[in-house]
Amino acid sequence: MANIDRPNGYRPVGNLTGTPYGGPTLACVSTENLFLGDLVKWASDPLAGASGAGAYLDVDRVSGVADLVVGVVVGWQADPSVDLSRKYYTGGSGGFVQVAPIDGLLLEVQCDDNAMTLVKVGLNADTTFAAGSLTTGMSNMELDSSTLATSNLLQFKVMGVAAIPGSSNEFSSAWTRVIVKCNQSGLNDQTAGV
After folding, report:
1. Is residue 68 exposed (0-12), middle (13-18) or buried (19+ Cβ within 10 Å)?
2. SS3 of 119, please?
3. Distances (CA, A) of 151 to 29, 68, 76, 155
4. With the C-alpha atoms ordered 169, 170, 171, 174, is the resulting torsion angle positive or negative?
5. What percentage of the chain exceeds 90 in pLDDT?
6. Cα angle 56, 57, 61; round to 5
7. Judging by beta carbons within 10 Å of its beta carbon (0-12, 13-18, 19+), is residue 183 exposed, middle or buried?
8. Domain map (residue ranges) of the chain
9. Which of 36, 1, 38, 2 lies closest to 175, judged by CA?
10. Tell me: the pLDDT tens digits for 164-186?
11. Rounded to the nearest 5 degrees, what angle is found at the Cα of 109, between the Cα atoms of 108 and 111?
């Protein structure tokens, strides 16, 4: 059975410690529209958009391979004054976006083509940066499997294939879903303060 093309960005599924994902999240703000599963980085001036009693830091959507990832969008604060039915975080609308910190996090993501094979587990790869869906509210980011290589400058390391009940999730077929960990984090030790 062929794999299904259903990108939904990066989805937290566990931790490197072996425990399942269950939080925590960072409360942040953004001037950009953000979708479930989008990767985010610190804004160029993280304090410029900081708001609220918690002085939430400002994040932007990751848009290039040189961006250091700080987390993945897992939700946002409901804002009755804006729209309770919104399917994505509307930048600058008030309220905060919930971001799962990237360090130690295992994520499930769809590959963008059929370059993924079993012998490529352990290699690193970058991300594709398609805009999210206004209809579903889901991210359209995928793992760029054409970039699979040993270079330490790539954003993610492939840890294995995703085990999906009721699905064959075939290798060497388009849209294989894999488990990855961040290889270029904005939260690592000895990074500059924001």
Report:
1. middle
2. helix
3. 33, 16, 34, 10
4. negative
5. 46
6. 125
7. middle
8. 11-182
9. 2
10. 776 677 777 778 899 999 998 88
11. 140
